[in-house]
Amino acid sequence: MAAEVRSGAKGVVDRVGELLAILAGVALVFMVLVIAVGVVMRFALALPILGSNEIVQLTAVAVVALGLPYCTAGDGHVRVDVLDQAIGPLGRFVGDVLSRVLSAIVLGVLVWRASLKAADAFRYGDATNMLTLPIWPFYGLLAFGVAMATLALLAQVFSILTGKAAT
Fold this sequence. Notes:
The structure is a single chain. Helix content is 75%, strand content 0%. The chain contains 4 helices and no strands. It has helices at 8-44, 52-73, 84-124, 136-161. The protein is elongated. Residues 1-5 have low confidence and may be disordered.
C-alpha cells in the first residue's frame, strides 16, 4: 500500500491509518511488556504489579481502536466468498457495496455512542478502580479509531462505485 500513489480523502485515511497502526504496535509491545514483567514480578519475586490488569485492559482498547482503521483501509478483514461463483459479478458488486455501507452504519453508531460515553466519563470523572486512571481518553480513542475505520469503508464504497478499486 505504501508504494501506491495516494491522493484525496482516501490517501489521507490511508496515511492516518498507517500512523495509527504504528501507535497500535507500540501499544501492543507495551502491553506485552506489562504482562511479562507482571508475571516475573508475581511469580519470581512475589511482588505483583498493582493494577496491571487495568493497564492491560485499557491498552487492549488502544490496540484495537488504533489498529482497526489500518486493517479496514487495507481490506484486511475476513471475507466469506462461498457464494461468489453463484451470484456472479453483479452480485459481488452489490455485496461489496452493501457490506461496506452496513458496516459503516454500524460503526457510525459505535462512534456516536463511544463519543457520548467519553463525554459522560469526562464529565463525571469516571476512573478505573485500582489506579484511578481516567477512562474518558480511551472512549475517545475508541471513537476516533472507529471513525477512521468508518471513513475508510466510505472511501472504499466511493472507489467501488467509481470503478477505481478492484473488489
